[in-house]
Amino acid sequence: MVVVELGANDVFRRVPSDVWTNDLAEIVERFQAAGSGVLIAGTLFPPFELRSGGEAESVYRDVARLSSAPLLVDLVAGVAGDPTLNVADGVHPNREGHRRPAETLWPYLLPLLD
After folding, report:
1. Are 95 and 79 in contact (CB under 8 A)?
2. Are strands 2-4 and 71-72 parallel, antiparallel or unpaired?
3. Which residue of 35, 58, 79, 88 is 20 to 30 Å from 68, comparing CA positions?
4. Do 81 and 70 contact (CB within 8 A), yes or no?
5. For residues 72 and 9, what is the distance between their CA atoms, to the nearest angstrom?
6. Domain extent at residue 95
7. Measured between alpha carbons, how far is 61 from 12 in angstroms, rounded to an integer?
8. Could you read off the pLDDT tens digit of each residue along the chain, which spans 114 residues?
9. Contact, 36 vs 1, CB < 8 A?
């Protein structure tokens, strides 16, 4: 089982969405071809999503649909942008900020364990 999460750095660096769409699709395809269950975990950190023009969620949904991989749309929902859950840079989660995504993942991972 593999959890694939990417996109925020690509958006931050202004990589065209078609480039990271292709990257995500290839990563998922390679893991699936190797026999792994794949969960796509999106990251919709608000400044990144604004910078992408809202494309990030569409990218995750499109790749999930085309690959039939389950999708957790926003791994950092409720964490991103909350200063009490992030280190001083305001982007990366602190200890508590990491616990919440871990708890959010479980309902998506359990079906892949069978």
Report:
1. no
2. unpaired
3. 79
4. no
5. 18
6. 2-113
7. 20
8. 999 998 777 777 878 888 989 999 999 999 999 999 999 999 886 655 555 566 888 889 999 999 999 999 989 888 888 899 999 988 789 999 999 988 999 999 888 887
9. yes
DSSP SS3 for 93: strand
Cβ-based neighbours of 92, under 8 Å, separated by 6 or more: 86
pLDDT for 40: 96
Question: pTM of this prediction?
Answer: 0.86
Q: Quote the number of domains for the chain.
A: 1
For position 58, which CATH number holds?
3.40.50.1110
- Residue listed under structure tokens 């071809």: 33
- How far is 20 from 93, CA to CA, in rounded Å? 23
